[in-house]
Design goal:
Elements (H helix, E strand, L loop, with lengths): L6 E7 L15 E2 L2 E2 H10 L5 E7 L9 E5 L6 H13 L5 E6 L7 H11 L5 E5 L5 E7 L3 H5 L8 H4 L3 E4 L11 H6 L4
Parallel strand pairs: 1-4, 1-6, 4-5, 7-9
Antiparallel strand pairs: 2-3, 6-8, 7-8
Pfam family, one: NTP_transf_3
Protein name: Molybdenum cofactor cytidylyltransferase
Organism: Stakelama pacifica
């Protein structure tokens, strides 16, 4: 499965960002660009079978992505994941790679390591900076039904417990949840 051209990318970018306050987190400035575009630009450099961005209503569509609108972000991350999976299935991928738009420091090299580590069609491969599985994560086709039927704001966390881990570089998996997280993020 080490071929990105058989993998559909699902970029989750439709959260409510409650911990960020009144400002739209993904529109917040980071190094002269909206926070939400950093991950999208990195992922656009990989030749995926499809690039799907699950967005909130009115959000700009990242270049090179197909958009799916989540008009019910209050239903949690799992709803966004389900919407992304429904769109991805149309491409008949061997796997999906799930990434979060609020992780601006992921690298193309790390994503390629995840893909190379997948090996088997049924694999789950997740990122880690220690021993904790987290996105970006790759899920083989055997897990598509489970991804599409998750509920709440936990995403695919239960599925990640059985993931093979691929270590990321220190600081690469920083997830921006609050204005303080953004302020503490080292500039590129």
């Amino acid at each position: 499965m080490a071929d990105a051209s058989r993998i559909a990318l699902i970029l989750l970018a439709a959260g409510r960002s409650n911990r960020f306050g009144d400002e739209d987190k993904l529109s917040a400035n980071l190094d002269g660009l909206p926070l939400g575009l950093h991950a999208a630009r990195t992922l656009a450099g990989i030749e995926f079978l499809a690039r799907i961005a699950v967005l909130g209503e009115g959000a700009p569509v990242p270049s090179g992505f197909e958009s799916v609108i989540n008009s019910e972000p209050e239903r949690g991350m799992s709803h966004s994941l389900s919407l992304g999976m429904a769109a991805a299935r149309a491409y008949q991928p061997q796997a999906v790679l799930v990434a979060l738009a609020d992780m601006p420091r992921i690298s193309e090299a790390h994503i390629r390591h995840l893909i190379a580590a997948a090996g088997k069609r049924h694999a789950i491969v997740a990122s880690s900076e220690s021993d904790t599985a987290m996105p970006p994560a790759l899920f083989g086709a055997a897990h598509f039904d489970a991804l599409e039927t998750q509920s709440g704001d936990r995403g695919a966390r239960a599925l990640l417990r059985s993931a093979r881990l691929v270590q990321a570089a220190p600081g690469e998996l920083i997830d921006i949840d609050t204005p303080d997280d953004l302020a503490r993020l080292p500039r590129a």
